[in-house]
Amino acid sequence: MYTEQELAMIREVISRKNSYSPEQLRILKEKYSTDKSVKYLGCLLPLYVLERDLYEKVATDPKVQQYAHLAFFPEIFPLVYASETLPRIGKLQGNRGHIWLVDHPEKRRVIKPFQNSREGEVAQIVSDLEVGPTQYPSIDGFLTEECIEGELFSQLSKERQSSEHMYTLGERMGEILRLLHSRNIYYNDTILTDDFGRSHVFVPKDRPALLFDYGVALRLDHYPDVSDEEVWNYARTFPRVNLMIELGGMDEEKMMELIIESRISFTRVSKEEIMDRDNDFIQEGLIFAALRFGEDIITPFQNGFSKRYRK
Questions:
Q1: Which residues contact residue 277 at a Cβ distance below 8 angstroms, ignoring those fewer than 6 apart?
Q2: Buried b vs exposed e over 240-251: b needs ≥16 C-beta within 10 Å?
Q3: Which residues are 100's β-sheet partners?
Q4: Counting beta carbons within 10 angstroms of the beta carbon of residue 43, is it exposed (0 to 12), middle (13 to 18) or buried (19 or more)?
Q5: Distance in angstroms (rounded) separating the CA atoms of residues 4 and 193
Q6: Do the beta carbons of residue 173 and residue 212 sit within 8 Å?
Q7: Three-class SS of residue 225?
């Protein structure tokens, strides 16, 4: 087992807060390239130059060989080191990085790295508002959140496509955006359904729908004072930019050019006009959803949405 002091150091290394001298980086590079047996350590390897005894303890720990850095997350640590049943780990490929699913009889958790510097702050607000996944104690730089059970909006079963249910879902999406916008959160990618059948809306069976994945969401509490990162996240969901990214035509130089260009248009409009784009995404997604479920869903959904969003 590990002491609280050891856990604190390990979690600090996982969060990548440490800085390293050129000599330390040289040693780590050599260690990684020559000692294949420790490649499973991944982001834990820097312990080799920071605290050698702790490194040896971690490197020879069979639980670390099995779970790597995930073993040390606050929600996962007791499942690995103090449970008779060990968790199962699944690795998924998200839109912008790897996602780990931790499955255990006591709990199911999703662990994923931040996609922007304020994602943790936004995710916690969303959790408190109960319009997105519940957040749990984590390591800085990573989200640890509930694994939502249910159906994606784009994959709703036939019995959940009725006018009554669509009206209720419209109300819920209006309520979600009203609450987010009241806290200066612009979701920036409100996909009900796209042409590939993807969705950012989960519809559980036992509670209201949830909007998940806040990786490109912006908190506009300091608008128009926005960072380059925020301008980039604003721009990257536009179709032209999205296509350039998918085709691999967005190097660092082009990215900076786009940020400079987008900052001008971004700061020329009001905060409310920016957040209204969330509503445009909803309407676009509703059209794709109608191709899947039939046009009868449009009016009840829009009526429900209008009732709650403007309330």
A1: 186, 188
A2: ebeebeeeeebe
A3: 91, 111
A4: middle
A5: 45
A6: no
A7: coil
- The Cα 275–Cα 284 span in angstroms is 15
Residue 199 tokens read as 């969705």
Residue 94 pLDDT > 90:
no
Q: Place 93 in a pLDDT band, splitting at 50, 70 and 90.
A: low
**Closest by Cα among 158, 146, 150 to 206:** 150
pTM of the model: 0.91
pLDDT of residue 6: 98
Distance CA 106, CA 85 (A): 9
Non-local CB neighbours of 248 within 8 Å, separated by 6+ positions: none
CA–CA dist 64, 58 (Å, integer): 7
The one-letter amino acid code at 244 reads: M
